[in-house]
């Protein structure tokens, strides 16, 4: 129904071996939203993204996608359902060409024609990548590698794009460009869940934000109210 969130996490507990990194997370992403996940290092932001995309299995709690339980599903199945995870620190393959990296994002596609169609779309969206299609990815600038990672993640035509620190290590100008891409994708109907250290960049595009601290959600606010909450910003987000 219209009120069913695209994605919902209900009391999700997860971690690594004996370490519990998430102590019962509640979070929703509605269709068309950009949601920011904020918090200090080690708060559990990346772990939240990993549990959503199936890279780690929740210990308890539920995850639903359009009402369907997805907790513990294999990453490939979750990708097929429409959730694409663009991981931290870019993870492009430096010894492969730009084009080959993009093709990897379409690894679930059977039809070559569909792969070509989506690759054309990627090159239309990112003309700089088209110019550098045959160049090794490792020779791109940091900002270009980030764009490549996003282009690759978009090859599955996700309804929800998950971005982990897309502006990490980029110049302020390149970071702005990345967030412009995020806005454009959202304007084209892609919902987005983004982890970001730069609170102001994140809140400039997000509709709502969740603040995590040591594996707990300690606040959920729309971006405007969060920007008007200096106490919260100072306490948890470094001002
Ligand atoms: P950062 O910005 O530093 O990535 P984060 O908010 O994304 O912070 P997580 O990476 O989710 O935090 O880490 C949450 C907790 O889980 C931390 O205590 C961290 O040390 C631990 N952790 C993260 N990844 C692993 C891993 N692969 N193996 C073991 N422990 C991990």
TrEMBL record:
Q: Which residues form the ABC transporter domain?
A: 7-239
Query: Which UniProt keywords are given for this protein, alphabetically ordered?
Result: Amino-acid transport, ATP-binding, Cell membrane, Membrane, Nucleotide-binding, Transport
Presence of the UniProt keyword Lipid metabolism in the record: no
Alphabetized GO MF terms? ATP binding
What are the coiled-coil residue ranges? none
Record family assignment: Belongs to the ABC transporter superfamily.
Name this protein carries in UniProt:
ABC transporter ATP-binding protein
